[in-house]
Design brief:
Strand content: 25-35%
Order of helices and strands: HHHHHEEEEEEEEEEEEEEHEHEHEHEE
Largest sheet: 14 strands, mixed
Oligomer: single chain
Structural class: alpha+beta
CATH topology of the largest domain: Jelly Rolls
Helix content: 25-40%
Number of helices: 9
Number of strands: 19
CATH class of the largest domain: Mainly Beta
CATH architecture of the largest domain: Sandwich
């Protein structure tokens, strides 16, 4: 099948939508058989169709298009309305595959206030939190299953004993031992956290050579810990590793369904999370660390940011002020 890029993408879109004629479907099957790498391009298009079909809140369409257009060649006019309407930006680092040449990397990046669900080719499902970025190579699932995360994501991993599933962050590596788990590793926060919903994971520093560990290893053991269901492992900025058992997993996973649930979270982390979900800036008024260290346990479901902050203020005995110039800037400080 010899088609220019525009006609090819239109045909593939019709095929994925189930609207292709018998002759067109046969042409696509012949194209897929001509080169094994063509399947990667078809999966890219399937991913874009999936995320744009999900109901999402109003997004910054202009910003999404500006970012996406950097990853596409001008001839990809077919993809313009698809990506411009998306709540997330699905970019392929190095450009899209073009008839026999697969991209080196693929990337899924979510905007402020938006999350998305992707399915990797091995069956693993990943829920990506707001303002997060997940990267993986084009040959993911062939010889290895490594992904790279900046932000937060929930991984429901398909079992493959020959190819371990690993999540790399700036500070840590988390390896699946048959499980579902959350990795939280935003660059602006001091710690990396792993929460295990099912099964087990191994968790260690990124710059530490791997050695065998046991579940009962002390907190400073190298490389880290083996976490089981309802465990939370934390790697702080000084490379200290700590473990909490018996956590409330439902609270830790609430964000995957759009609910913000804080379970004794420091206020410094709470305001960062709210900023990512509501696209606002929240400052803590006092210069000392006591206010930032105050802990909050609360749940918020689709509430406007003004109401969320008022509830926090009432709970912790604080007051909410508007920042200088108003707008989307709030200040939480002591006193009512």
């Amino acid at each position: 099948m010899h088609l220019d890029d525009d006609r090819l993408y239109v045909l593939l879109d019709r095929y994925l939508a189930g609207e292709a004629s018998a002759a067109e479907a046969q042409s696509v099957r012949e194209w897929l058989e001509a080169d094994p790498e063509h399947a990667a391009l078809l999966e890219d298009l399937r991913l874009i169709r999936r995320v744009t079909a999900e109901p999402v809140p109003q997004a910054n369409v202009e910003g999404a298009w500006a970012k996406a257009s950097k990853s596409l060649r001008p001839s990809r006019r077919f993809l313009v309305p698809v990506i411009a309407a998306a709540a997330v930006v699905v970019a392929v680092v190095g450009g899209w595959a073009v008839l026999g040449r697969a991209p080196a990397w693929r990337e899924v990046a979510t905007a402020v206030g938006h999350r998305t669900v992707i399915h990797l080719r091995d069956g693993t499902q990943v829920t990506v939190a707001p303002k997060s970025r997940l990267r993986y190579t084009a040959d993911y699932g062939k010889a290895h299953r490594d992904v790279y995360l900046d932000g937060e994501a929930y991984f429901q991993v398909s079992l493959d004993t020959r190819r371990p599933f690993r999540v790399h962050t700036a500070r840590s590596i988390t390896e699946d031992l048959g499980t579902a788990f959350v990795v939280r590793a935003y660059s602006e926060q001091n710690a990396t956290e792993v929460v295990v919903a099912e099964g087990r994971v191994a968790f260690w520093r990124a710059d530490t050579a791997r050695t065998a560990v046991t579940h009962d290893a002390p907190p400073n053991a190298q490389p880290g810990l083996v976490l089981e269901a309802r465990d939370l492992g934390r790697l702080d900025a000084n490379n200290g590793v700590t473990l909490r058992r018996g956590i409330d997993v439902a609270r830790q996973l609430a964000w995957t369904s759009g609910v913000l649930a804080f379970d004794g979270a420091p206020l410094r982390d709470v305001v960062l999370t709210l900023g990512r979900w509501y696209d606002v800036e929240i400052r803590l008024g006092d210069s000392d660390s006591a206010l930032a260290a105050r802990r909050l346990t609360a749940t918020f479901t689709n509430e406007p940011i003004d109401l969320v902050l008022q509830r926090i203020a009432l709970t912790l005995g604080l007051r909410v002020d508007r920042g200088a110039g108003g707008g989307a800037v709030f200040v939480l400080q002591n006193g009512r």
